[in-house]
Amino acid sequence: MLPTDQVSLICPRNDLESDCILDIAVRLQLDIREVAGDWGVTLDDALRQHPDLDSLRRHVIVIELPGATGQDFLEAAGKQVHMVDHHGPASDGPMPSALEQFAALVGYELTTAEYEVAIADRDFYPGLSRAGVSYARAQALRQEECVIRGDADLLDEARGFVAANPRRLGDLTLYFAPKRLANVLLEAAQEPTAEDYTEAADQHRPVQLLQVLAVFHADQDPASIRAVRFAGHAAARDALRSLLTDLALSNGLQLWLGGGNLGCFFGADARKGHPAPPFDHLMSRIFALLGGTSRPLLHYGCTFLLPLDLHESSELKPDPAIHATRFRKALARKEQAGDIRRHRLAVVDPGSLPTQADHERQCETQPTSIFSRCYGTSCSMRRTRGDHYPLTTQIPPVPSSAGGSDRMLSTTCVGG
Predict the structure, then answer these.
(1) φ and ψ of 13, to 5 deg
(2) What are the structural domains, with CATH classification, of the chain?
């Protein structure tokens, strides 16, 4: 525990958790350096606003302000720096919220209301329902968060947007949206119904939320991709961690990863001034990683392009590196059982694909992307069976013998 009379706090006020930390710091009479800035502000930005390092006390607590250069400056000035955050690769697993870490550092015992703020920041609605927090209280916490960020009106806009524009890929819901909604779209898309939340809270269990992946374009230019956001299962966190250390990504994108035991979130913003932020590479990696955690292709019968993981769920191990021999054996078993049909595709040069699909052979060489304005991937989406958007190369549907909706051929395309 740090002596409070020797502590300076450097902290923004850009969400409910930081607002709560600053209020506690006032009561504890800490030396406070409040930082102006929205999400994404850094310690370097903070020190430009508060350049007098000599006036800081011996211990400096920095709240959710990343920046190795700024930390070096503080340490060079003789300060003991305590970086408080729960985003990024700093630990092998989920970390306590910034509010909980701050309270432990200064020896402060959180109240019930303050614990609810910490839970909401760390574990969102699933954490609140597991703690038995009422739906009304959970909604009030989220609304207060939006008011502090100045996003209340945008959240209402985002609710309308997500209701009108979902694209579903198994248990993953995709959005292509304007950048102004980047801070609120995931919240709107994952907001549980009162009935689902209350049932979970009554049983003290985490409420189940959608997995959401969103690509954001400049508000006036859909061809200019500026950000990516993901929120989903906690199992995706370890897989997505590798993105933070990929220099091909971090050189052009500002990346972060967070969440607790009940979920995870990931974000990427284009670095200011970078001529070509590597969003194509990022999306390829995200889809590859999520395919090993959420496994959306497990759930529908359709035509799709390899490589992808055809192992049964029971065969998956914590290590995602499955040997090629095991992959081939699983493929052979499924082919022998008649679950899949195996054939080859004609190789087509990029840019030469036809615009219309007239027959099966032509369709097999016409993969496009749901985010074709954002990046090029060898897949396309087509709506079948209600609200689901299976991955398909658009082979013509086979009429259902029982009437009703058509069904898609269940085949696998291998090689090239």
Answers:
(1) -120, 75
(2) 4-110 (3.40.50), 152-287 (3.10.310), 295-416 (no CATH)
